[in-house]
């Protein structure tokens, strides 16, 4: 049962990220150069953090020296990378055993400071970090009169709810 809330959080993150990228993709032309750069910086930071912690979960090094890319990627490259990374997290969480969530992982922050977090804490951080920065991206969109995608827990539950089974008896 411990896996369920993590699976749900990661699925919600994937759903919300896809919605945000869809809205941005449809409205990128409405943003000026400065707004586009700001939005791409926020999106890149979100993705970089996801990638960094993915590496920590896998016990392998990453190439990031900060929580952002050295060169700002194009929008479509970010969208593709986020989709692949979100899919990885969903598969990863489904493959964990209940005891895996409490396993401690030692790693080094991009600042060089050593750290230790449990797998569950890393997953929680990745999901909450994304939620926070989707709000930043949404604020940029609001300034241009664009309604961001729905991304709350209740929106997710409503969008993914299974219709009740029909009782034909």
TrEMBL record:
The keyword Metal-binding applies. Pfam families: DinB. Gene3D superfamilies: dinb family like domain. Keywords: Metal-binding. It comes from the Bacteria. The keyword Metal-binding applies. Belongs to the DinB family. This is DinB family protein. It comes from Phenylobacterium terrae.
């Amino acid at each position: 049962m411990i896996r369920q809330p993590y699976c749900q959080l990661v699925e919600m993150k994937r759903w919300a990220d896809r919605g945000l990228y869809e809205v941005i993709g449809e409205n990128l032309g409405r943003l000026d150069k400065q707004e586009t750069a700001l939005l791409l910086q926020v999106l890149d930071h979100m993705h970089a953090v996801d990638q960094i912690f993915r590496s920590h979960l896998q016990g392998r090094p990453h190439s990031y020296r900060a929580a952002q890319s050295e060169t700002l990627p194009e929008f479509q490259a970010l969208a593709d990378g986020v989709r692949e990374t979100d899919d990885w997290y969903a598969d990863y969480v489904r493959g964990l055993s209940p005891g895996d969530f409490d396993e401690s992982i030692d790693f080094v922050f991009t600042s060089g400071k050593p750290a230790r977090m449990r797998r569950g804490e890393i997953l929680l951080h990745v999901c909450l970090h994304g939620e926070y920065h989707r709000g930043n991206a949404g604020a940029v969109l609001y300034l241009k009169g664009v309604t961001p995608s729905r991304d709350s827990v209740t929106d997710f539950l409503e969008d993914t709810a299974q219709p009740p089974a029909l009782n034909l008896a």
